[in-house]
Amino acid sequence: MAATTHQIPVYTEPEKFRLDHSSRRQPIIYRHVQVGNCVEKWKSPSYLLSRLEDKPVKIHEVDKEQVDRMDFRSKNFKYMTISMHSLIKKVFEVEEEKNDDKSYYLRWVGDDPRGQTKANFHVDFPKLSEDFSLDQSIFFDPDQFFSSVLRISSPGIRVWTHYDIMDNVYVQIMGSKDVIMWAPSEAFNLYLDGDKSKVVDFSDPTLLNERFPKFNQANKWVGHLEPGDVLFIPALWFHNMKALDTGVAINLFWKNLDPGLYDKNDPYGNRDLLPGAKAMRMLDNVIRQVNMLPPDYRDFYGRQLMSKLESKLLLKDE
Amino acid sequence: MAATTHQIPVYTEPEKFRLDHSSRRQPIIYRHVQVGNCVEKWKSPSYLLSRLEDKPVKIHEVDKEQVDRMDFRSKNFKYMTISMHSLIKKVFEVEEEKNDDKSYYLRWVGDDPRGQTKANFHVDFPKLSEDFSLDQSIFFDPDQFFSSVLRISSPGIRVWTHYDIMDNVYVQIMGSKDVIMWAPSEAFNLYLDGDKSKVVDFSDPTLLNERFPKFNQANKWVGHLEPGDVLFIPALWFHNMKALDTGVAINLFWKNLDPGLYDKNDPYGNRDLLPGAKAMRMLDNVIRQVNMLPPDYRDFYGRQLMSKLESKLLLKDE
Questions:
Q1: Fold of B5-261
Q2: What would the pLDDT profile of B235-265 be if each residue is shown by its tens digit?
Q3: Which pTM was predicted?
Q4: Eight-state DSSP code of residue A181
């Protein structure tokens, strides 16, 4: 059964998001949204250097030949802390910091990633944020706000497929990106390790198919982002982004569910919801019971338990 | 993908059961086993009447036209209590009790089915049991014995597909039977309601396929029993038996696992093992957790939980 490739639908009126779009629980691209002067001004590295606080930033450094297959399991990249200004020069390939062998990726985590403070672009980079004037109330109420994350990428960077636990919009400011997304129901086909897919190298289809035969059975959604485009990433949707050139983006996360459902110790917005995490822990005790039995009985009760979960929790096919 | 039909393997040396066969966890037919004079003597209804205590027996009465599709859900049969002698006359179609419209089925449950006493052929029918001299120690130790069940069937009776929780041997004494069995791993394809399959009517393949499309994908095992044949039915294997003519059989159940794993209140030997039943109850609490979330999150965590069960409990494909 061949998988389907959907185009992520494109709209021009983000004002309709809360009324008409968010409840569909599907990705959307809003094209050419009013996001402020940033789209023009941030093209210039010298402007960015003049407006960006020169803080230490924790970045991913990866060999250029691995730029499109960063692998969180084999760790074919390094975490390094450098200065923000140094990062800007490296990513924009300013002569004094040019490095032909390495590529860079920043996912800003806030000034105090281990504390309770989440990344907040307006607080963490107040001068630069004056250029970013997207009306966030289009997407969520102020008290739902969780974090706003600055992302800066060298050309070619592909970030591994993962899901977030919160609804978020990815606002492309500079550069273009190719987006691939998969519905939460494709989880079985994506070879998960926690919230991330083990499938990171798309370059050799034959090898990919040998190692991950179910991957090509997953229906995918594809789209393309240009400066000023806003991608809605519903919670739990898997997404993979590839920067086609030097990229700057702001990613806004909000608590779309009851705030009591979220893990309070979650700087990234990707920890399991409390009832989900608790259910997984409780399942360990269920498994412990069944493990008191011989293998054929374990298999049998395992299937009975799976069948019950399927009938009680899974959405019926449309 | 077409389903496979296996022939249930046929052996002639039941003495090899405990050493070589039982651990394979697959059905076996032992042909022409020494089970005693019963094979000859019980052909005569007058002999049976002279040796069988005339106790009240709880039987299934079903219209002849429904004889091969008894349905525990629509209850197209009646439970009735009649005398053993009356049952023998009806099933053997002795003139004084002949009924052209009805068929009968006895699964003897013991003298006190609600008490702690299980069906025990030698205790419940001492005179007749003198003719049945199968050496039970071929199959199990005396302290593993659970029950020995007398089964009497009118021609054509098909008993619904179900599984038992204990290993058992089905000793055909009189008449012949067709057997269909399915491995425990086919549970998903058999449309279970508890320990029974909802698929009871095999007469119209088109209708069957419309109502139960997965049923024909299940690999099945088939066999045929004649007087003196002994069928090993491993615990959890689904089985469906059709009496081709008047049938008498003795079905021996034993506790093949640690006795502490069995439900003490189980007259039939088909109640879930205690750890299995407990796991199913504990799963209700897991489901309650996940039900605190909206439908798309329930679906997502449902799949995560299923995936964990699959990797931790299911046997890997050979």
A1: Jelly Rolls (2.60.120)
A2: 999 999 999 999 999 999 999 999 999 998 8
A3: 0.84
A4: E
